[in-house]
Amino acid sequence: MRGSRLVCIVALVGLSGCDVGNEFQDLQAYMDEVRARPRSAIEPMPTFQPYEAFTYSAAAMRSPFQLPMKIDLATQQRGSKDIRPDEGRVKQYLEGFNIEVFEMVGTLSNGAGMQALVRGAGGVHRVKVGDYLGRNHGRIVRINEAAVDVVEIVPDGEGGWLERPRSLTLKERS
């Protein structure tokens, strides 16, 4: 029994040397320091600036990359009331694009006649005499190996219409 008493006394002396309170003293000091710092106020949210939509109003005007046309009012051609585009016909696909985007890249011919290949509007298209091309009611009137001749019907600005000839020349390989 004396041996067990001795073991209990040694265990009590050993356990009394362990101080649990001193183990986290440095952590407690840091937390006290953080709590003592002055608190800064949270900044308010910035004010919301609403988006203002921009409407491009010069879409119908002449492109700034095209040379301006000099018009002599005395010699300006007057439109005719007899010339009018056929508004009742069904529009063809290639009429939805400006004629400037097209370029002639070749021809095909067979017993039915000559056809031209024009590049633009996302691909190469086969056209023939009588087809329409461009936004100004352009009708193809002639095709040869070097060019596609188109006659456009444009307003003259005074209530009449003018026929304006245009040509798409063959684009050589580059």
UniProtKB/TrEMBL annotation:
Pfam families: PilP (PF04351)
InterPro entries: PilP
Domain of life: Bacteria
UniProt-recorded name of the protein: Type IV pilus assembly protein PilP
